[in-house]
């Protein structure tokens, strides 16, 4: 992130010219640095959200491709009882 930090370093850079101390002049860069940090954090979070969009849907598609037996319906099998078993008395 070289390009994003250049503005912050402009405020922090020590210049070789003598200047008279002014409290307002010293406070402005410090306030600006805080604002710049907030903007950088917002941009980073937006970038992460942009990169992660659609990841959940892709993950579901991959899971379905891996193991179809988990989502496919069971095959209904009709069981026909044989007549020989039906007429026999129960054993003790």
UniProtKB/TrEMBL annotation:
It comes from Cucumis melo var. makuwa. This is Ribosome biogenesis protein RLP24. Residues 1-21 are annotated as: Disordered. The lineage of its organism: Eukaryota, Viridiplantae, Streptophyta, Embryophyta, Tracheophyta.
């Amino acid at each position: 992130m070289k390009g994003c930090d250049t503005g912050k370093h402009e405020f922090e850079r020590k210049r070789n010219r003598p200047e008279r101390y002014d409290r307002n002049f010293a406070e402005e860069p410090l306030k600006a640095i805080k604002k710049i940090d907030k903007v950088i954090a917002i941009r980073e979070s937006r970038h992460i959200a942009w990169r992660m969009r659609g990841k959940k849907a892709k993950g579901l598609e991959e899971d379905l491709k891996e193991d179809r037996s988990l989502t496919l319906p069971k095959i209904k099998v009709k069981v026909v009882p044989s007549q020989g078993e039906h007429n026999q008395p129960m054993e003790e």
